[in-house]
């Protein structure tokens, strides 16, 4: 992991499963609609049945809720085409890392800097191409609108 990033592991989500041998090759960026503490409580509660690997606060603090070795439940009803093979939400969860940004578009410079550092570090660690750094809205069009971030512009800045 990038030495410039400090990862807080105080919050852990039970909402994950085995990757069933799938290799991590994708990242999905989301945003929360509410504040940090509400998002952390929800994503770490059994009744939520959703989670993410990471949550990045407006202040740029990075929280890891699920180990990268596990599939966090973040894709929901979704689809993506991987080299001519259609994947559903369960398959996307197995091969991706989910990152939540606190807020719904009012992102801060520290937050976006932490996102960039986290994403580039994970890209290097797992050999993920920039083309596979996706917004939730790209895998669930018409159903999801997050993140409120220009994903094409974000991908252009990635190595």
Any overview of this molecule?
The strands form 3 sheets. Strands 1-5-4-9-3-10 form a 6-stranded mixed β-sheet, with helices on both faces. The protein has a two-stranded antiparallel sheet with strand order 2-6. The chain has one domain (7-156): Lysozyme-like. It has 5 helices and 10 strands. The chain has helices spanning 36-43, 89-95, 109-126, 136-139, 151-156; strands spanning 7-8, 16-18, 26-31, 54-56, 62-64, 70-72, 79-82, 85-88, 96-101, 133-135. It starts with 6 loop residues before the first strand and ends with a helix. 27% of the residues lie in helices and 23% in strands. The chain has 159 residues and is an alpha/beta fold.
Radius of gyration, in angstroms, nearest whole number? 14 Å
Q: Please give the share of residues in helix.
A: 25-40%
Could you state the order of secondary-structure elements as H and E? EEEHEEEEEHEHEHH
Number of helices: 5
Q: What would the CATH topology be?
A: Lysozyme-like
The total beta strand count reads 10
**Poorly predicted segments:** none
The dominant shape is globular
**Helix/sheet category:** alpha/beta
Distance between the amino and carboxyl termini: 16 Å
The domain tally reads 1
- CATH class descriptor name: Alpha Beta
What is the averaged pLDDT score?
96
């Amino acid at each position: 992991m990038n030495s410039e990033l400090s990862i807080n592991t105080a919050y852990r989500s039970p909402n994950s499963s085995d990757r069933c041998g799938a290799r991590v090759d994708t990242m999905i960026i989301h945003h929360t609609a509410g504040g940090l503490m509400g998002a952390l409580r929800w994503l770490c509660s059994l009744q939520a049945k959703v989670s993410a690997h990471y949550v990045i606060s407006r202040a740029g603090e990075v929280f890891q809720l699920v180990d990268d070795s596990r599939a966090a439940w973040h894709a929901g009803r979704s689809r993506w085409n991987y080299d001519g093979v259609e994947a559903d939400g369960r398959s996307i969860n197995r091969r991706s890392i989910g990152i939540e940004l606190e807020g719904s578009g009012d992102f801060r410079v520290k937050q976006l800097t932490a996102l960039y550092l986290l994403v580039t570090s994970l890209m290097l660690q797992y050999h993920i191409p920039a083309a596979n750094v996706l917004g939730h809205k790209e895998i669930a069009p018409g159903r999801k609108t997050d993140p409120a971030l220009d994903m094409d512009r974000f991908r252009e800045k990635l190595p």
